[in-house]
Q: What sequence folds into this?
């Protein structure tokens, strides 16, 4: 049976600012009208991050626009939300985060079999020269593809 996955939002800035070394799939604890808003695509992952407090994995600074047709059930757009992961995964992430330079960054929010999931990336920060090197590689690939396309036509 094929799994149906619909990507709602991606964090392109995370891939630009960090080397994503590993990813984890987690659930997210939402209120009913937040789920409706997520399904409509009203999510912004820019400048969001994750933190481990106690035995809980928390998602901070994610903007989920309040549901337009919701009434007093709407909650604050940038509230702290709990991510649902296995204890072993949280302990593994905690071990990496305590090392120098690692952080947890949400990379995607998507629907999987009707449930809202968040992909959390274990990331290490890029230096300015790393960003420049990646940009140069992309430009070189584009130039090669362009010349191949021109040559074939």
A:
């Amino acid at each position: 049976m094929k799994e149906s996955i619909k990507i709602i939002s991606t964090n392109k800035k995370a891939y630009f600012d960090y080397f994503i070394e590993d990813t984890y799939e987690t659930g997210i604890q939402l209120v009913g009208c937040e789920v409706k808003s997520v399904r409509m695509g009203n999510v912004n992952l820019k400048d969001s991050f994750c933190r481990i407090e106690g035995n809980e994995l928390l998602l901070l600074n994610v903007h989920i626009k309040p549901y337009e047709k919701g009434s007093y059930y709407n909650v604050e757009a940038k509230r702290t939300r709990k991510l649902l992961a296995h204890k072993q995964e949280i302990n593994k992430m905690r071990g990496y985060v305590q090392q120098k330079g690692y952080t947890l960054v949400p990379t995607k929010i998507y629907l999987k079999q009707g449930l809202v999931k968040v992909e959390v990336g274990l990331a290490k920060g890029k230096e300015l020269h790393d960003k420049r090197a990646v940009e140069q590689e992309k430009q070189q690939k584009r130039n090669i593809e362009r010349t191949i396309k021109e040559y074939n036509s």
Observations:
- The beta strands are 5-10, 18-28, 43-44, 49-53, 56-60, 63-64, 81-84, 102-112, 115-125.
- The two ends are 41 Å apart (CA to CA).
- The longest helix spans residues 128-152.
